[in-house]
Structure formats: C-alpha cells, structure tokens
Amino acid sequence: MNIYVLVKRTFDTEEKIVLNGGAIQEDGAEFIINPYDEYAIEEAIQVRDAQGGEVTVVTIGGEDAEKQLRTALAMGADKAVLINTEDDVEDLDQYSVAHILSEYLKDKDADLILGGNVAIDGGSGQVGPRLAELLGINYVTTITNLEIDSDTVKIVRDVEGDSEVIETSLPLLVTAQQGLNEPRYPSLPGIMKAKKKPLEELELDDLDIDEDDVEAKTETVEIFLPAEKEAGRVLQGELKDQVKELVQLLHTEAKVI
Amino acid sequence: MSKKVLVLGEVREGSLRNVSFEAIAAGKTIADGGEVVGVLIGDSVENVSSEMIQYGADRVITVEHPHLKQYTSDGFSQAFMACVDAEQPEAIVFGHTALGKDLSPKIASKLQSGLISDVTKIEGEGEDAVFIRPIYSGKAFEKVKVKEGVLFITIRPNNIAPLEKDESRTGEVSSQAVDITNLRTVIKEVVRKASEGVDLSEAKVIIAGGRGVKSEEGFKPLQDLATLLGGAVGASRGACDADYCDYSLQIGQTGKVVTPDLYIACGISGAIQHLAGMSNSKIIVAINKDPEANIFKVADYGIIGDLFEVVPMLIEEFKTILVNA
Q: DSSP labels for A237-253?
C-alpha cells in the first residue's frame, strides 16, 4: 500500500504567543509535529505494518521543518519529503497549500493519504478535504477508527460527539481525530535509523508550479492578542454562603442564568 | 457594492440549528443591501424554510432528494453546487459545525476560492468587511480579508448574534432539482453519544470536569447540573487521558474550542492548553480545592472547595432561582 501522511510543524502547545512588530515571535519557541498529525503518522505506520507498503511523510515549509520530518521517520515512516517554499512565496493560504500538495501527489498513485483533522496553529482544517477534491478522491474527516479489508474501508468518524460508522473504498484521504490511536514515541534505534532514511527536498520549480498559480486567495491584515483577562473574585465565607452568592451573581450581575 | 449571499441552513432532527440564524445575520452584514438567499439540503426540509425567512433570509432554495437524507460530502456538494450554478453568488456563509467544516473546503476547492474558517466576528460591512478568527486555539486572533474570488466564510456557533425573529416576514421558497450520483461514502450507522442532544460547540452553558472529578461516576453531578441548566458537559485533557470520559468531550488546544455564556470548571487546574480552549467564554466560574490553581487567574468567580460538595449545593441553589424565575 502506497501511503502518504501530511505533516505540519507547529508551535508546542505549551508556548505562549508573543507578538513582535505585528507578527508572532518564533525565536526561542519550541516546535512540534502538529498533535493531530501524530495520530495520522501512527495510523499510517500501523496500516503499513498490517498491509505492507511504504509510508511517506510530506510537509510544506522551510528548512526548520526537517526536524519534524526526522521525528516522523524515527517513529517509523519510510521516506520524507520537504517542499521548501521559503525562497519562493511569502504567504500561503489553504488554497495555496492544497494546490502545491496536489501537484506533488497527482502522479504518486497514493492509496491512502492521512493528515490531522486540524492544525493547532491556523486551525482551519481545510487542507485535507481541499486536497482530496483536487486529486478527485474521496475523503472522510475526524476519524477515530480505520479498518482496511482489501478494497473496503470501514471507518468510525466523530461528529460532534456522536459516532458515524461509514463504509467507503480506496483511494481515500482521511483526517485524524483524537482517540484514533496512541502515537508512539521514537525509540533510540528508530532515531538512529531515521538519520539514514531518505529525505527529499523539493522547490516549487521541481513541481513545475508557477508562483502566481499558488498565490493566496485570502490575506491576514492583522494579528492581535486577546485582552488580558483580569483575575476575578474568589468568594469568601462559609461554603454554603459562597454557593448562594455565586448563583446570585450569575443571575443578577453576570445575567447568564 | 452589494453582494448576493448564499447561506446554508443546517437541519438537525427536523429543526434548524441556531448557528444557521447566526449565519443569516452574518450574511446580511456581508450582503450590504444585497440579497441573502437561504439554502436547505435534505430529504425533507421545506417545512423550516419559513423560519429562515423570519430570521432574515430574503428567499429560500430547497434541494430535496432521497439520497440527501444523511449528510455526505459527495451528496451535499452536488446539491449546493447546483444552487451556486443557478444563483452565481458573490459570497457564501456556512456554520463552522461538523458538517460545515467537512463540506466547506470541498466547495471552496470546486470554486477555486479562498475560505475564511471559524469566524467569530465581522468588522465593517460589504466591501470593507474584515473577518476575525482565532488562531493558536484562541491564544491569538487574526483579521483576514479575501483578495479575490468568492467571499466564503464559516462562522463559529455562539459568537455572531442572530437577528430578531420577525414572524411577519415573507419570501419566495423555490426548489432546485438535482441529480445525486456517485456517492462514495455509505453511512451504516450513527451512534449517539452526545449529552442530551446539546452540542458542546453550541452550548450556552458548559460544566467541565478535570482530574479532580476522579472517576467516570464523578461526572454524574456535573451532568445533573448541565441538564438542569440546559447545557453540556465538557472535560480537560487530564480527565480524558485518565479515561473518566470520552475524548469527544475534550476542551482545549487539542480538542474543542468553546465560547459559552457560562463555563463552570470543576476540578480543573487550568493548564495553558486547556485555557486556550475556553478562556474566551463570557463568564468563567472555577471550583477547585487548590487555591493556587491556574484556573482562578481566568475565572470571573472562584470557589475554593471540593467540587463534590459544591456542585450538589449549586444544583439546589439553581433550582431555587429557576423556580422563582
């Protein structure tokens, strides 16, 4: 089975966001593989181990993203591809990213493409479905279980807390929801092996993409931080009286009940 | 310049979801005097069309077909694209719901357009409209504009106020014929797990539990309080990882991002990942034994105490208020 995983390098969830000159400051921040993409990588490895084949992890970004690709290789992926857009384009939106990925994947005959259902930075969740549409293949988002039996694929998908049991077929793109699996940590031998696994670097030219064709359709005009929330009141007195006071406050002051 | 806006109305168990009314209001702001056209897709949806008009849609198109009884991206995209082809809209609004999140990128891809997802606020009107959306799960926000093509947005439930319902409003309801073919996905079964039918992302009140809840049974008083207030139960990652509840309840940077009117955090310490998912709630109440817990830093009101003592007292006290209300 020919398996591809879409991976994004994101801020560690522990990081605070600091603005510098209107942009998010990246210096000194820790970066990780987008947590939802980790589920996708784990699932890809499990499918390969059960069915045979090869797992290729793909990312779009700059040189720095190599680190996250190596981590994915250390987890057990076979090959990695970095589509380096650093020198070519400044701003990519979901339209651009899906377009670039589809140009890369269009002649790869992927049986299964996996990704996270959303990236914890941009939070749009668009790239997977957009890519599937461009490739002309089916997609299922927010999956929590995947079973492949030759051509038939059985999926459980999370829909706002309910579960949908779905049947579909390959080729297919799926996006991972929490609960799909427990992503493994890279083992020491895995980390050693990862250093020798192939990591291919491509630029837009290598994919015959003209920068104008992937120009973003949307534009971020400003980034700002939410107003600092001031610590509120910690109630005092007998617990029973505190509860009484709280309910009164919610009813008369905050007017939410 | 005024715009013609298509707004997808989402029907669940026979009723329109609140977010659809909010989407109509967003559509009005974008339309800048242009027409707001509601679109309803399903096997039998005509009965809710008048409600869309009462909430501000100028007219409604229904697309009905037996294959549209359940949502599939293939079926609904064919139905919606038939309306796009017939109407040639300049703008489109969906709710940022499970359905909206799944369908909107496919439509945007077909239209080769941008898509601004998860909008929480619109600044300005018509041409000058700028869309505000959370990034890093609400640790920051961005203002986004469309550079070219159709203006397509999805709006987060509970953030944009719907228009006042006007039962005297009338408008044309027409049906769009469609041929639904090549459905590649078959839904075999839907297992309902969501609490009392109130979805976390749309709930006005959320009672959330953390590690302090201690067990699956520990969620029972929280569920009772949620039911009393017509709300939903959520959880921190700690509670999910400890198997006290399903991952679908998780609120935080991984998990759901919620903005209810009232968020009551019970036995939640307030890790930064959790705060990212709920700190934009209108009113936050923290109940925790540990006075040093981080959650008190974002709470409007705090009670230092054991949730198993406080929550049952809260239930009794709310009952008194609700009876007298």
A: S-HHHHHHHHHHIIIII
